[in-house]
Structure formats: structure tokens, C-alpha cells
């Protein structure tokens, strides 16, 4: 694979990351409680991309291309998970508002990692990206190894971008850290995640 092809693929991955999606808002939501939580979420998302790359390499993800029902099931599952995250965020915010310390809404690291991983794995658009776009960059004869290599590149680009986003968001929160602002951002992130989930479920019909 030539250097020009690698750079072109990385540029495409970065362009896709710049388009806001569920993982972006998950990272932003967790970064409200510190850059570390956002970075851990980004690590989960990057691992999810590697899972998709592996699925494509062994031919499992081709089911999405051949079966509209499989695509819809995965899309509904992903939407339900996002709704679950949004509702859980809202309930955590309500508990904090009822008198519990604000830090009670802060995510634990395993929870942050799992949310990034599951959100990416249950996002069929990531699978379709590896099915439709990645093969165009895989060198002739590279086969599964080429797909896994490009998957690692995509995961690396996503991790780098989301890590930078985590630190920027955490620094911004530290700059304007006030209980009222944090509560508002929690409510907004809960609403956005829920809206993503509902929209995903509706789009699967």
C-alpha cells in the first residue's frame, strides 16, 4: 500500500470523524467529568472499529449487505442502546439535582469504555463503511490482512481525534465549571443521545 493511499484513507477517516455521531456525543458527555473518562470512551470506540474490521475480514459483516433484516435488527439494537444511555444520563442528572453530589453522575471508567465499545459495535454504518469503502483501499492480494491494517488505521485516527476532543472538552468544562452549566450540559447530552437512538430506530423501519 503506497504512502499516498494511506494518507488518503486517513484523511477520509478524519473527515468521517469530524461528522458528529453517537460516539462523538458519548465522548463529549463523559468528558464533562474529566478528560480521562472521554479518552477511555474513545478507546472503547476505537476497539469497536477493530471489531468491525475483524468481522469484515472474516466475512461476517457481509450479512449486513445481503440482509436488510439483519441491518434493521442491528440498527434497532444500536438505537435502543443509545436511548438507554440517554435515559440513564437523565436519571443520573435527576438524582444529582435532588440533593446528591454532582459527582454522582460521573461515569466509572469501565462504564465509559463499554459505552464507546458497544455504541460503535452496534452502529451498522461503521460496518457498511468497512464493507463499501475499505475494500477500495485494500491492495490486491492483501486480503484479510489489508482489511485489518486499514481497520487499525481507522481506529487510530478515531482515537487520536476523540482524544483531542476529550481534552478540549474537559479543559472547556474546567474553564466554565459551574454546577448550573454542568447540569445543563448533562441534560443536553442526555437529550442528544436519546434523539440519536429514537432517530436510529425510526430509520430502521
TrEMBL record:
Keyword Isomerase: no
Localization annotation: Cell membrane
Membrane topology category: Multi-pass membrane protein
Major location category of this protein: membrane
Listed Pfam families: LysE
Membrane-spanning ranges: 44-64, 117-138, 150-173
Keyword tags: Cell membrane, Membrane, Transmembrane, Transmembrane helix
Name of this protein: LysE family transporter
UniProt source species: Kineococcus endophyticus
Amino acid at each position: 500500500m503506497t504512502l499516498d493511499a494511506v494518507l488518503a484513507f486517513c484523511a477520509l477517516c478524519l473527515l468521517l470523524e469530524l461528522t458528529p455521531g453517537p460516539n462523538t456525543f458519548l465522548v463529549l458527555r463523559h468528558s464533562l467529568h474529566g478528560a480521562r473518562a472521554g479518552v477511555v470512551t474513545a478507546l472503547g470506540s476505537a476497539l469497536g472499529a477493530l471489531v468491525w474490521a475483524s468481522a469484515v475480514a472474516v466475512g461476517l459483516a457481509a450479512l449486513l449487505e445481503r440482509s436488510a433484516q439483519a441491518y434493521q435488527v442491528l440498527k434497532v439494537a444500536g438505537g435502543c442502546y443509545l436511548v438507554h444511555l440517554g435515559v440513564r444520563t437523565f436519571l443520573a442528572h435527576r438524582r444529582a439535582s435532588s440533593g446528591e453530589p454532582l459527582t454522582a453522575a460521573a461515569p466509572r471508567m469501565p462504564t465509559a469504555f463499554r459505552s464507546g465499545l458497544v455504541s460503535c459495535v452496534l452502529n451498522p454504518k461503521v460496518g457498511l463503511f468497512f464493507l463499501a469503502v475499505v475494500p477500495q483501499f485494500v491492495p490486491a492480494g492483501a486480503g484479510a490482512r489489508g482489511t485489518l491494517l486499514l481497520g487499525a488505521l481507522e481506529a487510530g485516527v478515531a482515537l487520536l481525534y476523540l482524544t483531542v476532543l476529550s481534552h478540549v472538552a474537559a479543559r472547556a468544562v474546567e474553564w466554565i465549571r459551574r454546577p448550573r452549566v454542568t447540569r445543563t450540559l448533562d441534560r443536553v447530552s442526555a437529550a442528544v443521545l436519546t434523539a440519536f437512538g429514537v432517530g436510529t430506530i425510526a430509520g430502521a423501519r
